[in-house]
Structures are given as structure tokens and as C-alpha cells.
Amino acid sequence: MKRSFLYCIITVLFAISFIDPVAGIAQNGTYIPAIALYPQQNAVRNRLDLSSIWNFQLDPAEEGENAGWFNGLPAPQSIAVPGSWNDQLDQKHNYLGCSWYEMETYVPSSWKNNEVGIRIGSAVYFAKVWINGQLLGQHEGGHLPFAFAVTDKVKWGEKNRITIMVENKLSADRVPGNVAGGALTSVNYPNTNYDFFPYSGLHRSVWLYSVPKQAHLIDIALTTTFQGSTGTIHAKVKKHGKVANGRVIVSDKDGKQTVMPLRFTGDDANVDVQIADVKLWSPDTPYLYNVTVELGNASKPIDSYNLQTGVRTIEVKGNDILLNGEPIILRGFGKHEDFPIFGRGTALPVMIRDFSLMKWIGANSFRTSHYPYDETVYEEADKQGILIIDEIPSVGLVFYDDKKDIDRRRKLCDRMLEEMITRDKNHPSVIMWCVANEPSPKTLGSNVMGGSNDAAEEENNIAKDFLGGLLRQAKKLDPSRLTTFVGVMGGPADWMAECDLITINRYYGWYTNTGNFAMAERYFGGELDKLYNQFHKPIVLTEFGADAISGHHANEDEMYSEEFQRKMINAYLDIANTKPFVKGMMVWAFADFRTGQALMRVGGMNLKGVFTQDRRPKMAAWLLRKRWVDEKKGNF
User: Fold this and answer.
1) I want to staple 455 with a disulfide (CB 3.0 to 4.6 A). Which of 269, 296, 438, 460 is the partner?
2) Model pTM greater than 0.70?
3) Burial, 52: exposed, middle or buried (Cβ in 10 Å; 0-12, 13-18, 19+)?
């Protein structure tokens, strides 16, 4: 491998040590966090999407690596990429073990004088990658991309074999995992400590891509602000190669351009682009500016990259969440990437349908529960003006088991947070980084009514250091956005002290006070007051709801009926409207989704969706549309 490309790809804005066994390896290749810039096709860059039918073979005995399967699979079958393997193959729904993917492809000869890489959008959960039998490296953690250099390993003029081994074993030192004694581990099959199905495989596109060899962009970080009618886009640019200059071009929708030169100090440059009569980005007016960054002379750029962004600010002040200095409330959902047969694989028609339904129902926001979504989702949210709480996969964390496992989970969370912010930092739709969902004390459940369940002193100190460290890391990487984690029902409130705002999940009337609406309303309202009096920060309810079997109708006090679900959601919204410090209500969930099998999961499904898994509305969906679109009743 030539040093120039190695240097380029390991010195991105948020570089990660490639000798860290958590982050990757340097055996026969290098783990590279070159994920800041999504592969792009333009006059100087190239990309090749390998979404197709791949060869596939299960490896339950884990013999493939020793047997050299990276030189050719001995007995392959067909599988679609992207997509989860669990529902594509007969009788393999619960298989999470070692599996192999194989694809053969030409690399276009026109790329021969460029640097070439491979980028895997998501491999759940652990992957090793080979090209032409040569190991490139490995990556741990699903839902985020990783990349490797392949320039010196490509065979020109003939097919190249790409092989990816993926496994999704559940263990206590992974994020997420199956911690012994976890709230769900003993009752779910597969034994996850999280309440969604552990879909496995290559869930997003695999790309071959090229960048100019002489010099190329490594990262572009955009932050925005405004003063009066003048907006500012601050561009922080990192490059590699022998070029000292470039430019940033900002264009509005009418074609009006503002051009600013780039002057590099080493490989870094910073520039402010002023925009007169700026049009701010918001859910009502999601105005996007086109930003092009070029290296070299304007007449013939060496490298060029284009992206879109919106000028907007986000902050917390007093009881309010302020978007562009104006109070905003969040009406929306927790969601999952989940659809029949696709599993967690990219399904673009489903994505478009989801945005259409969110607009129909009057939602302005959603949380990427409980992992970062496909990059195309963020691009569409930018266009449609939907606000996003972006969340790493740290769901179901505990702090009372083996210290080695806790320390390793912390390293994984640190890296996942860096990868997520590296990837998603330029999207105006992303207003908040969420560093965990429902971290839980050992004694969870002993005092869920009051939400003041204290942990043991050692556990408490570990949890505060772990969660506080992630919040501070997010602020250091991106001070322009809010930071939080989602508190579990019955969890220690003081763990949330460093959050910019309080985000909580609550299920009074469902998991506790089951079916007792009067008691549920009393506990919910009382806890909201208690949390506000403790923190004096805005509160967003990021989960609430009840399961409803589609088409099951009964008296509205009968659980699992559509009427019960509608009544519970309506009651929670009414209570929230009496609390001026509540600034967001996000129903759990947007649509029904697959889980592990458990007695409380009818058909292996979480049925709290206001839409079915195939996106048919339940009664609760019509209720929300009535409140959020027709009546606009109060805040919620």
C-alpha cells in the first residue's frame, strides 16, 4: 500500500487508532475510519454499488477461515445484499452465527490511476473483509460504515473476489449484548438484553469507490449560525496531497453563488461563508443550500465534493428547546428499521412511505431507536424538515457486571459515538446526539413507581462516569448540538444530571399499574413534576404507548385492543399538555416491529406501533392525525 493513501485514510477528522483491538486490526491491511464522506460520483470521484445477489454460506462450525473460504465458498447459495439473512433463508430466522458473503466484480479500468477503497455500510455485528484472498481487516459494531484501502490489491482487467465474514453472536462485552441478569435476557429468545430482533448480515450497500491520487478531500465539517438576516456556514476541511488551495462554493436554490477561497495550513483549512438574506432551515421551511468544496484551481479542480446543508441553530434555554431562537416542541415517534423479509436491510420504498406517513400524521421528529439509520434516511429528513434524535446502539447498558466487560463496552461506545458523529454531523435534521437508551441499575424494578431507584454506590459512580463521559465526548466532538441519554422507568434520576435536557421512557398503565388508567395518570403526572423540580430542564417523553393487535376491538379498557392503545396515548398527551416544561412527546412506536420470542410478545412482535409492520394505520394513528393536524390541540 502506498503511504499517501494510508496517510489519507487514517488521518480523518476523528481518527481512531488502528492498533486498538476494539477499533480494528492492521493485519494484511488497515482498518480505516474513512467514513466522513459518503461515496459520490462526480467528474473526479467514482463509486460502484455492489447491491445485488451475492453468494452466501453459513458456517456454524466456524471452519471457513481455516479452510480458506476467502478463496471461494465451497457450497454457496444466493442471498440479497442489502438485507438481513434471518428472513431470507428457510429455517434460519434465529441463526446468529458465522456466515460468509462473496461477490465477484470488475473494478473499472478508468479507476486505475486513482486510489480505491471499499466501504461497507453496515455489517451486524462483527465482520472480516478480504479481497482476492487478502485480509483487509475487521470491524466490530453494526449500523455504522467502515472502509479499507484496496488500491494495491485490485486485479485490473479481471474479476475481483470480495469476501465478507459476518457474525452476530450475543455476549456481555458487546454493544448491545446479552448481559447475564439483564431485564430481558432471561425471557427473550434469542437472548438479547434489548427489545428488538437481532437481525444479522449486510444491511446496507457495499461500495467500491475511488478518489484522485494527487490530492483528495478527507473530511468536511459544516456548522451554521446566523445574525439578523445574515447566515454563516463555517467549513472545516481536511485534505491529503500536494495542493495548497481550493474553494468553497455555496449556492441557493435560485443559483446565486457565494465563493470563498481555501488556504491550507498543512492539511487543514477553515473558512466562513457569509450568506445575505439567509433562508433558515426548519420543519416548516426545510431550505437547503448546496455546498461544493474543491481542491486546486477553479478551472480544473483536482478533487470535488458536494453536499447540502441548512442554516439553523439548536439550543436549550430555560424550559424551552429553541430552533433558530424560537421555541419548538417535538411531536413524533420512536422507530425501527424493520420490514417483512428485508429485516433491517435498506428498503428505500419503505423509507419514502414512512416519511409520507409522518407528514400525514403531523409528526415533525423521530428518534433513531436504537442505532444510527441508513444515510439516505438523514438526507430525506433534511429535505422534508423532519427533526432527528440520533442514537448509538448502546441500548440496555448495565454497570454491575464484570469490570472488563464494562470497560470494553465503554471503548465500543466511545468509538460508535465518534463514528456516528463523523458520519452524520452535516445533517441539519440531526438536532441531538443520544448516547444511550435505558441504562439500568441492578435493582431496576424495585421502585419503578417513583422513578427514584438508587443504585449501589460503586455502580452509581461507574454509571455516572460512563454516561457523563459519553455526553462530554459528544459535546467535544460537536458542541453545536444537544446531548442526552434516555432514562429508563425506575432508573436513578441523578444519572441524567449532565444531559442538556431530560429524555425518558415511561409505561405507567402498561408494564406497571397494568390497565389502571387512573393510577397510571397520577404516577406519570407526579413524576414529570418531580423530574422538573429536580433539574429545571425541558422534558421530552421519548417512549410511551401500549400494544394493540391490529383489528382487535373491544371495550377501551381491554388491553391489546386498538381502543386501549388509543385511550392510553390520548391520556398521556393530555397530561403533557398540562406541563409547560414538557417539550416533546414521541409515541412508541411508529410501526409494529419484530422482537425475540417472549410471552409478552404476541407472534414475536412488539405491537405498540400506531401503524402495522406493513404500514396500515390503527385507530391511534387517526387519533394523532386529529390532534396534530386537524385540531392542533394544545402542544400535543
Assistant:
1) 460
2) yes
3) exposed
pLDDT in tens, 195-254: 999 999 999 999 999 999 999 999 999 999 999 999 999 999 999 898 999 999 999 999
Q: What angle do CA 313, 475, 263 make, to 5 degrees?
A: 70
Question: Which pLDDT tens digit goes with each residue over 364-386?
Answer: 999 999 999 999 999 999 999 99
Instruction: Identify the CATH number of the domain defined by range 215-309.
Output: 2.60.40.10
Q: Which residues pair with 269 in a beta bridge?
A: 237
Residue bearing cell 450475543: 170
Question: What pLDDT does 188 receive?
Answer: 76
The CATH number of domain 3-33+51-204, selected from 2.60.120.260, 3.60.15.10, 3.40.50.20, 3.90.25.10: 2.60.120.260
d(CA 496, CA 471): 10
Give the number of other CB atoms < 10 A from CB of residue 350.
17
CA torsion, ordered 30, 31, 34, 40, to nearest 10 deg: 80
Q: What span, in angstroms and rounded, lies between the C-alpha atoms of 171 and 370?
A: 18
User: Across all residues in the chain, what is the average pLDDT?
Assistant: 91
Pair 220, 262: CB distance under 8 Å: no
Q: Which of 439, 378, 444, 443 is nearest to 410 (CA)?
A: 439
Residue where the block lists cell 467549513: 235
Residue 261 carries which side chain, given as an amino acid letter? P
Report the distance separating Cα 604 and Cα 588, nearest Å: 17
Left, alpha or beta for 521 (phi > 0: left; psi -120 to 50: alpha)?
Answer: alpha
Grid cell 498543512 is found at: 266
Which residues make beta-bridge pairs with 259? Answer: 249
Question: Coil, helix or strand for 109?
Answer: helix
Task: In whole angstroms, give the CA distance from residue 407 to residue 462.
Answer: 10
**Confidence band, pLDDT 50/70/90 cuts, at residue 455:** low
Q: No. of H helices and E strands in the chain?
A: 8, 32
Third-level CATH fold of 328-631 = TIM Barrel (3.20.20)
* Residues whose CB is less than 8 angstroms from the CB of residue 124 and which lie 6 or more positions away in sequence, other chains included: 142, 143, 166, 168, 198, 199, 200, 201, 203, 344
Q: Is 623 left (phi over 0), alpha (psi -120 to 50) or beta?
A: alpha
Q: Decide: 492 and 444 in contact? Cβ < 8 Å.
A: no
Catalytic machinery residues: 438, 543
Contact at 8 Å (CB) between 376 and 345? no
Strands 245-251 and 257-263: antiparallel
Write down the residue that cell numbers 388491553 correspond to: 559
The span from the CA of 115 to the CA of 71, in Å, is 24
> In the predicted model, is pLDDT for residue 336 greater than 90?
yes
| Cβ contacts of 458 within 8 Å, gap of 6 or more | none
DSSP secondary structure string for all residues of 219-243: EEEEEEEEETTEEEEEEEEEEEES-
C-alpha cell at 490: 425506575
